[in-house]
Amino acid sequence: MYARVSAKKKKLFTEREYDNLLKMDVNQISRKMEEGSYKKEINELGGEYDGAALIERALNLNLANTYENLMKISSEDAKPLIRVYLRRFDITNIKRIIRWKDTDQTQNIEQILYPIGTLGLSFEEIREDSKEELISKLDFSDSDFNYKEEIEECETVKEIEDCLDRVYSEELRALAENSGSKEFQRFVEEEQFNQDLQLALRMKKYDVDTEGIKSRLFNHKEELQELLETDFEQALDIAENLTEVQADNLEEFETKIKQDRLERALQSLHREPLGLSSVIGYIVAKEIEIDNLRIISRAKETGIQNNDTIRNNLVTV
User: What is the pLDDT of residue 4?
Assistant: First the structure.
């Protein structure tokens, strides 16, 4: 499994390749992707889509195919762990479905969901069932955590989203604690700390009161107490000290946090080569590549020609 994951890692885009993509238009980018690991998806979707739309759908489909392949090559004891780690795509899909149900539903539901996960809901069900009926069908049979029971107690969409995030956070922490991997435990702890930290900073920026921010955090209220009791500018300074990341603004801080996340993920491929974290490290690197390619294609589609502006939003090593 480690050998196969290492081979996949070598196919990821390098910083030099990103620089070359920045010189291309969207159609040239899709042709470049077709030459590498995205060939299958570009060919499959190329007859129906083109431009940024083709790239967007090819990226999502490739991500789904990548995870399906990882499940196939993983050992039996690793499969449940990877499945739970990837459940966050289910969580994202559930939240998008519920939000979609609360809108005029003009957007095509197939276009806003990740083709990844174990929800088992057909697009026909999603379109025809009520929000309550869809919630009643949620069933993660491989989970010890009852998501359906938890969110049935919620009244608003916001409460449902917060509940889903909380339960998934609890499940992921339990997974890490029972994994037997110190590296994976550290990875999950750092992931969740950075998520809470960035959420707190965003809410600080929009003047949400301390209690309002605390109600959204799950695991790190005490560690972030000093940050919560100050203004945004001081909070950003505290965040820099906590993470050893220096930035002039929140957007730059978040990009550098992603950069640090990628570096740690790639290092885990070598620190614990026979453990779960080697696979998770590749998963993180793959997701970041998908995000980078999406940023480039969307920028080109919207006419942004300043390559420095685009490059500043990419996460590379």
Answer: 86
CA–CA gap between residue 314 and residue 292 (Å, rounded): 5
CB 98 within 8 A of CB 160: yes
pLDDT digits (tens, 9 = 90+) for 132-168: 888 888 888 888 898 988 888 888 998 999 899 999 9
* Confidence at residue 199, expressed as pLDDT on a 0 to 100 scale: 93
Would you state the structure tokens that stand for residue 140, as one six-digit string? 């993660």
- Total residue length of the chain: 317
Triad 214, 215, 219: Cα angle to 5°: 65
**What CA–CA distance (Å, rounded) separates 41 from 58?**
5
Per DSSP, the three-state class of 153 is: coil
pTM: 0.84
- Which residue pairs, CB below 8 angstroms and at least 24 apart, start in 4-13? 4/73, 5/70, 5/73, 5/269, 5/278, 5/279, 5/282, 6/269, 8/37, 8/66, 8/282, 8/286, 9/266, 9/269, 9/282, 9/285, 11/36, 11/37, 12/285, 12/286, 12/289, 13/289, 13/292, 13/293
Closest to 167 (Cα-Cα) out of 221, 230, 218, 94:
218
CB under 8 Å to 260, separation ≥6 — which residues?
A: 243, 245
| Euclidean distance between CA atoms 290 and 69, whole angstroms | 17
**DSSP readout, 109-132?**
GGGTS-S-SS----HHHHHHS-HH
What is the C-alpha to C-alpha distance for residues 202 and 216, in angstroms, rounded to an integer? 12
Q: How many CB atoms lie within 10 A of CB 140?
A: 22
User: What digits encode the pLDDT tens for the residues 103-127?
Assistant: 878 888 887 888 877 777 888 888 8
What H or E segment, with its residue span, contains residue 77?
none
Among 74, 81, 110, 76, residue whose Cα is nearest residue 93: 110
Structure tokens at 197: 């930290």
